[in-house]
Amino acid sequence: MAKDLLFEIGLEEVPARFLRAAMEQLKEKTVQWLEQSRLSHGAVEASATPRRLSVLVQDVAEKQDDVEEEVKGPSRKIAQDENGNWSKAALGFARGQGVDPEQFTFKELNGVEYIYVTKSSTGVDTASILAEGLLGILSSMNFPKNMRWGSYDYKFVRPIRWLVAMFGSDVIDLEVTGVKSGNVTRGHRFLGTEAVLSDASEYREALRSQHVIVDVKERENMILEQIGKLAQEKNWKIAIKDDLLEEVLFLVETPTVLFGTFDPSFLNIPQEVLITSMREHQRYFPVLDEQGKLLPFFVTVRNGDDRSLDVIAKGNEKVLRARLSDAKFFYDEDQKLEIKDALSKLESIVFHEELGTVGDKVRRIRKIADQLGEALQISGTEQEYVSRAADICKFDLVTQMVYEFPELQGVMGEDYARKAGENEAVAKAVFEHYQPRSASDDLPASLVGSIISIADKIDTIVGCFSIGIIPTGSQDPYALRRQSQGIVQILLAKQMPLTLSQIFGIAIDVHAQFREMKRQGSEIRKDLEEFFGLRVKKLLSENLRYDVVDAVIAAGFDDVMSIVSRGDALMNAVEGGDEFKTTVESFNRVSNLAAKASKAAVSESLLQEEAEKELHAAWLQVQKPYSTALEQRDGAKALGILGELKPAITNFFDAVMVMAEDEKVRANRLGLLAQIDQGLKQFADFNKLVW
Amino acid sequence: MNFQQMILTLQQFWAAQNCIIVNPYDTEKGAGTMNPMTFLRSLGPEPWKVAYVEPSRRPSDGRYGENPNRLYQHHQFQVIIKPSPDNIQELYLESLKALGVDALHHDIRFVEDNWENPSLGCAGLGWEVWLDGMEITQFTYFQQVGGIETHPVSVEITYGMERLASYIQEKENVFDLEWVDGITYGDVFHQPEYEHSKYTFEVSDVKMLFTLFNMYEQEAKKAMDQNLVFPAYDYVLKCSHTFNLLDARGAISVTERTGYITRVRNLARQVAATYVEEREKLGFPLLKKGGDL
């Protein structure tokens, strides 16, 4: 026999951003407990609204499964003396297990005999263990932030106001912070009342009748459906951003979509500003026309039914009007600020105590960017744009708009720079230098923007590394991982022939020119290499097998374009079939023996056998085209050339006895293999491939 | 409902919940939380229920009376109950009903907002309450006050009176709000708004303000030497307001800022700790009177 189990934690409004994870956690912990308790069960569904977290488990067994368990005791040697009398240790074990020594059995484990007892426990009634189990689940819940309330010491995400704990039709008695469990849940705060459940299985429908759509997916569908209908009716495009939908979803128990309007004159303000203000401050969905142009409407989701929607729309319009008036005020005021005055204000904004002000940072970015431009041999005009863009890239940080909406940094800078008459390439770079702002963000489109972006990021990374701020575990307050990844992505996307060590060198030198460095440049460089190595590895792993990644990384990752090209070529070859496998086997034979060589030198006069002369000749022949292919970062070509060595290698091992008697001949043969091995290792460590 | 009726309604409502109704504190402050009726009384084990209007000065928000939404000084209606009662959200929603806001015909939400006042070493968790998209109330469970973990926990409800009134009276401009029949908010407060803004941004004597800050700090310390908590706290408030004036004037650089905030916070912490000690010496008198005040 089985019954449904319901556990609902009634709470004051839980932060929307915590709810999905909390709901999943509740489910996980419940399943874990059921399994530990040997309770068979059916489907487990967790749900969450702002005021509740719940889990409903179908068909939970009314009794635990019976179990037989073997417990291992001391070894026979310790347990019994020569006469077969039980030792103290054995008697203690028996006492501890609650059995008579008569019940001991012996069994061998790894050649030693041990005593064992077999304990069978009969499953107890589920009802008798539920209260303790549910309390355990409740108090083991983790949230990013907990609080205390009233006079209780208990900590939870928000105050607990009611508990429903039912097994079938029975209430499981629990009490926490003065709240006793029952079979009464609470409906929508305004539309509903309490609902008494006569069985756990009634949960969802009972709440539905009290205007709570407890299922998250169902609420999401309701919102999307209503938005879709509105969009169709009005011929609008309603921009649904996933994270906003997610938040709104957890702010309502009964969702009703409504729209409002704002004065079209606000549309003179850049669209991003209006959208940010609507989204961030008000959780509204912006409305666009077919061409993606913002329309003077907004869509919001009310927590309730369709009563008095006009009043609510009017109220929201009033709030938005005040918000947009503020935005307009900031926008107009900001344009009165000249860029040069804004720049001088950067001198008083501390970037980091030890790394100086934002003004200091900008001067470093300028130097780094200029040198990157030189290394890339960009044109004189481009170099001018780079310098100017570097100088002004942070000026919008002191504008009121960015103060109000930090996420508009760069966006406002681009707009204001253009309005102030800056060159288009410079204005664009002011925005682009922040890209990529997240893992999924676009990369800078222009060359100038890319250079400033790299300069800004490497300045931060080197700065932080130079004062010992190196990300560990989950600690990465300056998002250095994302920034280093951004640099690598840009190098690849823009096909920039820059090595990481070149970039490190420039940035470390520039820092050393401007500030007293606490750490040695060489130490910083070592940490940077390790740090970027992991980023490159992560990036490669998105498309390549891990063994391919390991193999090419072993040959160095300083030149990221090269490593990607080598990685792709190797991946293709590895997936190409068995033919390549035998090629790699021949390479590995070379490498394995090469390890025995004391130096990678060949003396032609010591080459005796035909096959070894041939291999040497073959190697000499490919050397040049091989290094050219590597220089050109043409991984496929380089690998193809290496492949040409295979017959000569196979032939060599068939015909030549490497470990010859004559020490000199032997050393010479090993030297030849070591030379080839060095060549191979410029491409990859083929030994790391797994078949 | 005019502004005055709103205040009277809230006073009556919370008086009926056994809150003592006190009057605004007579030292300048940025928020009702800084009133000693909240800052000090939310410390220690003694139960406490209080409600009051607090005119709150935010010098940097001064707009010469030209902005329809921003003010040098606005009004908060503040409720503090310790320990926080189990039905506090329901009580709050009833108070809105008393103001004529029927939840069924509006959209009322509790949206996460964690509150912090670093210069007083205070932190709490709670929400901003939205009425049809407008933030009308801060609702906070104090977790830390003056650097001390609170136990029991006080709940603080802070109504933004101008915002609430602009909604209830359907006014776009704060100065058009009706204070009483025939007298607007502007009639009462426009001139001071203009003058305080002008003084704050153009006239104030920066050198004198710096000197005052130091003098107030010294005086607070002197009072603390004698365990005189309330006078010391008055000077902490004066330090805080003086700092706000200097900050609004742009006289404090970003780097110095943290230093000044730390100085105020250190004083506030000391005052908070000594307040609890002094109450303990008195035997926590309110504890003996039981739950309801």
TrEMBL record, chain A:
EC annotation from Swiss-Prot or TrEMBL: 6.1.1.14
Indicate the transmembrane segments per the record.
Answer: none
Show the PROSITE patterns listed in the entry.
Answer: AA_TRNA_LIGASE_II_GLYAB
Cell location: Cytoplasm
EC top class named in words: ligase
UniProtKB keywords: Aminoacyl-tRNA synthetase, ATP-binding, Cytoplasm, Ligase, Nucleotide-binding, Protein biosynthesis
Report the superkingdom from the record. Bacteria
Named from the GO MF annotations, one term is:
ligase activity
Pfam families under this entry?
Answer: DALR_1 (PF05746), tRNA_synt_2f (PF02092)
Which reaction does this chain catalyze?
tRNA(Gly) + glycine + ATP = glycyl-tRNA(Gly) + AMP + diphosphate
User: Which part of the chain is the DALR anticodon binding domain?
Assistant: 588-682
HAMAP family recorded = Gly_tRNA_synth_beta
Q: How does it assemble?
A: Tetramer of two alpha and two beta subunits.
In the record, the note on similarity to other proteins reads:
Belongs to the class-II aminoacyl-tRNA synthetase family.
Recorded hits in PANTHER family, A to Z, give:
GLYCINE--TRNA LIGASE, CHLOROPLASTIC_MITOCHONDRIAL 2, GLYCYL-TRNA SYNTHETASE
Query: What is the protein name stated in its UniProt record?
Result: Glycine--tRNA ligase beta subunit
Say which species the protein is native to. Paenibacillus cookii
UniProtKB/TrEMBL annotation, chain B:
Kindly name one Pfam family recorded for this protein.
Answer: tRNA-synt_2e
Against InterPro entries, the record matches this protein to: aa-tRNA-synth_II/BPL/LPL, Gly-tRNA-synth_heterodimer, Gly-tRNA_ligase_asu
Domain of life (superkingdom):
Bacteria
Which keywords does UniProt give here? Aminoacyl-tRNA synthetase, ATP-binding, Cytoplasm, Ligase, Nucleotide-binding, Protein biosynthesis
GO molecular-function annotation terms?
ligase activity
Q: Supply the PROSITE patterns for this chain.
A: AA_TRNA_LIGASE_II_GLYAB (PS50861)
Report the top EC class in one word: ligase
Q: Reaction catalysed?
A: tRNA(Gly) + glycine + ATP = glycyl-tRNA(Gly) + AMP + diphosphate
> Record's CDD domains?
GlyRS_alpha_core
E.C. number(s) listed in UniProt: 6.1.1.14
List localization entries.
Cytoplasm
The cross-references to Gene3D superfamilies, in alphabetical order and at most eight, read: Bira Bifunctional Protein, Domain 2 (3.30.930.10), Class II aaRS and biotin synthetases, domain 2 (1.20.58.180)
- Record-linked PANTHER family: GLYCINE--TRNA LIGASE, CHLOROPLASTIC_MITOCHONDRIAL 2, GLYCYL-TRNA SYNTHETASE
Known partners and oligomeric status:
Tetramer of two alpha and two beta subunits.
Family, per entry:
Belongs to the class-II aminoacyl-tRNA synthetase family.
Would you tell me the protein name for this molecule?
Answer: Glycine--tRNA ligase alpha subunit
Give the gene name: glyQ
